[in-house]
Amino acid sequence: MIFSQLTHLPIIFQVDEDIFARVGHLLERNKLSFNNILVVSGGTISYDLSIDLIRKYKWDSFVLSNNDFSEIEKLKAYCLHKKHDLIIAVGGGKVLDSVKRVCYLINLNHISLPTIISNDGLISPIAVIKNERGKTESLPGSMPMGVIIDLDIIQKTPIKYLRAAAGDILSNLSATHDWILSYNKNGEYVNDLAFQLSRSAANSLVHFNEKDLHYKPFLRQIIQGQVNSGIAMSLSGSSRPCSGSEHLISHAIDYLEVGNGSLHGIQVASISLFILFLQDKLLPEYIDYAKSTGIPLLFTELLNSTENRVLIEIFRKSKEMRPGRYTILDTITEVEFIDNFTAFKNEINYLVR
């Protein structure tokens, strides 16, 4: 049985407490039968968690050492040799994205059991993989046929990962404004449902009453936002609903290696505040949300240099990162970029005094 990618939706989607060990039951309940299941994990915490599944159900296992092209080829070859008909991916983004990529390449079903929720890639059709130069590439991936998330496990992860998850969804706001800008300028097609799913994912978090990263109802909302973002990208056929100029700047920072190693979700969220200022869409509640979740209000706090020459270099490189993706950055010059950031910084400093 091959799960159809045309449905865009997982057959299984469960978010609950103490649910990790009930994977086999969930397969049975949904009348899904597989003969040769492989559990793929990382080498540390996710491996320790996967051991219980492997022993309980007597499934095969594979430990990923990295998310690069070489490791992808090893996993692909192993699956083909062993003739697995389902992969259960246990771990963070590197494991989930590696499995998505392999399943895309060999047309294989997979189920995701995230141990970390740091970005909106839970069910997106995009896999972030390292190339031969050690740089990340966004490549087509297979959406999972199931997502099973144990809130007890997620709640115990380091706060930075929860912050990144909450932050990544905030960037949907600037991304969707860029999408509309491109529609108005170039007539780029906008999928209405994808647009609304992306925007509502962000707004549901911004307007949540208790923005506590360890509060399970808020975590549920973050996870739902990630799922809606993934569906939005699948419906649109690209990352457009959730990736605009804020992601281009983030990719430029990573490419130029001028960041301080912050997680992707934290970085794009912080940049998104400045982009919303550029778009004349920055609202007080967005700043309040960033403060409540610990997102830096100035993305320069995440750089190893705040000199104007570095900002100009980032601006130039960002416009090369995704040729053809029209954003607010295409409407301003280098001088205007610096001038606007100075004005933004002054406004933020005034607000937090």
In short:
The protein is α/β, with parallel strands linked by helices and 353 residues long. Helices cover 52% and strands 11% of the residues.
Counted up, domains total: 2
With helices defined by DSSP (H or I, 4 residues minimum), what is the helix count? Answer: 14
Taking all residues together, what is the mean pLDDT? Answer: 92
**Quick one: how many beta strands?**
8
Shape: globular
Residue fraction in strands:
5-15%
Keywords: Cytoplasm, Lipid biosynthesis, Lipid metabolism, Metal-binding, NAD, NADP, Oxidoreductase, Phospholipid biosynthesis, Phospholipid metabolism, Zinc
InterPro entries: G1PDH, Glycerol_DH
GO molecular function, one term: metal ion binding
Pfam families: Fe-ADH_2
Account of the protein in words:
The protein is of the alpha/beta class and 353 residues long. It folds into two domains: 151 residues, Rossmann fold, CATH 3.40.50; 193 residues, Dehydroquinate synthase-like, alpha domain, CATH 1.20.1090.10. 52% of the residues lie in helices and 11% in strands. It contains 14 helices and eight strands. It has a six-stranded parallel sheet with strand order 1-8-5-4-2-3, sandwiched between helices. A two-stranded antiparallel ribbon has the order 6-7. Helix 6 runs parallel beside helix 11. The longest helix is centred in the middle third of the chain and has 21 residues. The protein is globular, with a radius of gyration of 20 Å. The N and C termini lie far apart (60 Å).
Descriptors:
globular; 353 residues; Dehydroquinate synthase-like, alpha domain; 14 helices; two-stranded antiparallel sheet; disordered N terminus; Rossmann fold; alpha/beta
